[in-house]
Amino acid sequence: MRCIGLAQAWESLGGKAEFACTGAPLARLAEEGLPVNAIRSLRGSMDDAHETAALLKSKQAVWAALDGYHFTADFQKLLMDQGIKTLVVDDNQDCRFYHANIVVNPNLHAKEKMFRDREVHTRLLLGPEYAFLRKEFWESSKMQRRPPQKAANILITLGGADPHNTTLKAIRAVKLNTGFNLHAKVLAGQSNPHIQSLEEELKDAPGVELIRDAKNMAELMAWADFAVSAAGSTCWEMAASGLPGIYIVLADNQKNIAAELHGRGAGINLGWRAGVTKFTIWGTIKHLMEFKDRLERMSKAGQAITDGLGAKRTVNIMMEQ
Description:
- This protein is α/β, with parallel strands linked by helices.
- It folds into 2 domains: 3-133 and 308-320, Rossmann fold; 140-305, Rossmann fold (3-Layer(aba) Sandwich).
- The chain has helices at 3-12, 25-31, 46-58, 73-81, 166-174, 195-201, 217-223, 234-241, 255-263, 278-290, 292-305, 310-320, and strands at 19-21, 36-38, 63-67, 85-89, 102-105, 123-126, 153-157, 183-188, 208-212, 226-230, 245-249, 267-272.
- The strands form 3 sheets. It has a 6-stranded parallel sheet with strand order 9-8-7-10-11-12, sandwiched between helices.
- It starts with a helix and ends with a helix.
- This is UDP-2,4-diacetamido-2,4,6-trideoxy-beta-L-altropyranose hydrolase.
- Keywords: Hydrolase.
């Protein structure tokens, strides 16, 4: 849902933004007050490309922003051939060729050599300075996070769906606590299929609160001393907010992100979810609660990575073209 941040930045500079998509995001986008156009064709198919192009033409759209693994080189070329300026977000060099005006890869591991096969005029925007954060995080980098006297507030956010129920493992880790006065807020999205098991586990977990479909992420991150998180796009919100992270890799495309954040000192990478136990998580939590000076260093390292203004920065470049 990072393109919400791009849409908000576009509108903040006087433009109008609408979404075209299929499936689950429709309700969430509507909640954000952004117009949504449903695409009925098979996602990523050439029928999808033609339907999308027709929609863009009917709306007299100047730009199309594509974010998803299914937007192939052929899909991009069809839009470009019809005179539609195109921005492609690509985290992992997913296309054999890039037919785009702009390609954005907001990750620390992004390198120009990943995108050699592209149009001559394609501009590359690489690194977290171009990460799309929603407007609630645009002021985050200005926030001076005070080192906690005693780290006690933990945010657990392991993806909106969390199909493997890693959140349950994190709750069980927190329940190993016997000596710390800690509080934890556990986030679960609308599409999480494990709510019943999470609620059952929390019946004997004082100080641990389950929050469904949170709408105030910036506020929750400001409340927390550190987080147990997946290494997806949420990590850039955490970095801009100066929120240290204990990262668990839930998908292949998160491996490099977790490793880079660990290397920069902004987080602790616990690795692939299957190898992470409740004891691993609790041991790391306990370490951070005992050594708050490390939390302060991690916080500063995160804010040095991104200032939260990547969406605005990208829109300014789009408007120049």
